[in-house]
Design a protein that fits this description.
single chain; 140 residues; alpha+beta; Alpha-Beta Plaits; four-stranded antiparallel sheet; 6 strands
């Protein structure tokens, strides 16, 4: 039998594959910033009762598989995570140079995860390998 999550008046099983990118698709998530981003996302999700099933940050985009109660909309959760993480990352790593404080683009990609959860988790986990394979060209 499935292991459903529950609150006082609702039982659910909802998982979402969410992707977003830094502003101008700049390669900003590497080294200390990438490690700190993971810590920040874990902390923010814990605050709201959001479960991080799988997650991976590449230098120019982020993949997350999340599960959260239906009392939260997808837009609310993504807005909260992007907004709060941008504030924290800018506060910790921003130089004194003038410029925009926005870290992420306005949009995001979301897809519901159903019976193909295993494939989605593998896809997220293997991001670096997939990106490397796409960069290798074969002219045969």
């Amino acid at each position: 039998m499935r292991d459903y999550q529950s609150l006082a008046h609702v039982r659910w099983e909802s998982k979402y594959h969410i992707v977003w990118v830094p502003k101008y698709r700049r390669k900003r998530l590497y080294g200390k910033v990438r490690r700190r981003f993971g810590e920040i996302i874990s902390d923010l999700c814990r605050q709201k009762g959001v479960e991080v099933i799988e997650g991976h940050a590449m230098s120019d985009h982020v993949h997350l598989c999340l599960s959260f109660p239906p009392k939260f909309s997808i837009a609310y959760v993504v807005g909260f995570l992007k907004g709060k993480s941008a504030i924290r990352l800018n506060r910790e790593f921003r130089t004194k140079a003038k410029g925009s404080k926005s870290f992420w683009i306005r949009g995001y990609f979301v897809s519901t995860v159903g019976l193909d959860e295993k494939e989605v988790r593998e896809y997220i986990r293997d991001q670096e390998k997939l990106d490397k394979d796409q960069m290798e060209f074969n002219f045969d």
